[in-house]
Amino acid sequence: MTTVRLSAAQALVRWLVAQRTELLDGTEAPLFPGVFAIFGHGNVLGLGTALDEHRDDLPTWRGHNEQGMALAAVGYAKATHRRQVGVATSSIGPGAMNMVTAAGVAHANRLPVLLLPGDTFVGRAPDPVLQQVEHFDDATATVNDAFRAVSRYFDRITRPEQLLATLPQVARVLTDPADCGPVVLALPQDVQAEAFDYPLELFTRVVHRVPRPRPDARAVAAAVDRIRRAERPLLVLGGGVRYSGAAQVAIDVAEAHGIPMTETTAGRTLVPHDHPLHAGPIGITGSASANTLAERADVVLAVGTRLQDFTTASWTVFNPETLVTINAARFDAVKHNALAVVGDAGECLHELAGALGDYHAPPEWTASAAEERAKWDAHVNALREPTPKDGLPTYAQVVGVVNDLSGPDDYVMTASGGMPGELIGGWRANGTATMDVEYGFSCMGYELAGAWGAAMARRHTHPHGIVTTLLGDGSYLMLNSELYSAAFAGHGFVAVVCDNDGYAVIARLQTGQGGRAFNNMYDDCRSERTDTLRPRVSFADHAAALGCAVLPADDLAGVADAYRKAREIAVAERRPAVVVVRTHPSSWTEAGAWWEVGVPEHLSGHPGYQQGKARQLRYTSYGG
């Protein structure tokens, strides 16, 4: 066996470079297209030196907040439909801990990311070192153990030869459709520098092809039998359809059998908006059209979705006789006593279609998708009418402007606050898989950091498209440092910042259930200033100071003009272009679904809470 002597860090980087991936279109690309890094003691000399040696093969991008750069890695993975994996590394202690939130985002959304936090000395000779947390009862524990709760695979490399056993598992998890999620390799700084004679085979070029497991024939037969007896079947398309590249397969199945289609948050933009079988997005942030059909459906076929509460309206939007699920992960497929078909979305849909034969849903049910969606479209049209409320544009109007000026190669993003409801419920897709709404973890700040990662990814696959991220003032203030990272690195995208003076959507939740306005909108927050003029944030000045182009807008017409110019600048100048507009704080797109939150019995919203719980209890166990 031929070997080469390398430090553990050198071996890890050399292995990263050797890994390749097959994209959805069949072309080959690096599995790990780059590394986001902030160096400090714990990774600068070990991993940092190794990355420097491969700077031409594996680009290293300088981040400015560890959470932000790890979120950029997550955004990269989503933009490539889980076929490429961003890497992020930090020093020990607070730098490592900053990435835990990003690991949570990846875990909740089933997205691959490789995190390489520095760790304290295995040898322990200099203990306690700077930024080390000591545990009185467990000498083996470090702050990196916090990652265990949000990792799909976790390992601490305490000897350099352990890489031989763990790296195949790293690749497995990052490319497995069922187990996909964040991988964390904690790297003690002394072990990073230790040398070992590694076999050259470890660094052989490998092309990873995401497996497409086929379903059990008996499960398919049972699902087909139930669907063929359905009078009102409904197809729900989730993120698994996107990651399988099975959108057209799903549409073909729906067309062949007259089955209306809806989309989850992760499945948004899989179906062309004006398709006659498209009932709209489902759930709390979805559409009244899809929710109406879901309430009436007797069989729901949910494909590639983990059935999160915003999709199911806390399990009150569905009332089927049978729930049939298709999912690569058995964990998700068996939820709520479903008739489970486990396998790749595309392969399972192919087999279902072949077995359904001449089955076709009743024509009146098939037609109901377009009929109900037409009502929803009319509702959204009215919300988009350029009539300002109290002189301010609404979120729906701003989204309408961006939607009208976007093309099929463009990509739109958001993550938290009120904007997910506007994008999920109101956006009209004219391209396939062109939306990323991070509403699994709903992480404030993902909007900007994730957009950096998406812009990096899509500059290769969609060079003529624009990434646009929409966010509120709260998310901007939460995490904005990666605007400078993107400006410095030369990655352009458009950010539309809607300033409504606080955490407006949480204020709506608070007061809508009978609570008193408190600590959400700035007017309801405590301040000990003696003057009456509290400071306002100048988002325009701040973004400009971070190297962005800035285009303020005073009204809806100004938003359209600013957004047009921002798109041009983002491409021409290769930096973020930020549109800033003040928006109305209490105008929203409502789908009319219920969401369970704990409402104390003394608040006026408690009777509604009890009614929702009564509906939920009827729907939480389906007959299979």
UniProtKB/TrEMBL annotation:
Name under which the protein is recorded: 3D-(3,5/4)-trihydroxycyclohexane-1,2-dione acylhydrolase (Decyclizing)
Family: Belongs to the TPP enzyme family.
Domain Thiamine pyrophosphate enzyme central, chain residue ranges per copy: 220-352
Domain Thiamine pyrophosphate enzyme TPP-binding residues, every copy: 434-581
Record lineage: Bacteria, Bacillati, Actinomycetota, Actinomycetes, Pseudonocardiales
Single GO molecular function: flavin adenine dinucleotide binding
InterPro entries the UniProt entry points to: DHS-like_NAD/FAD-binding_dom, Myo_inos_IolD, THDP-binding, Thiamin_PyroP_enz_cen_dom, Thiamin_PyroP_enz_TPP-bd_dom, TPP_enz, TPP_enzyme_TPP-bd
GO annotation (BP), single: isoleucine biosynthetic process
Species this protein is from: Longimycelium tulufanense
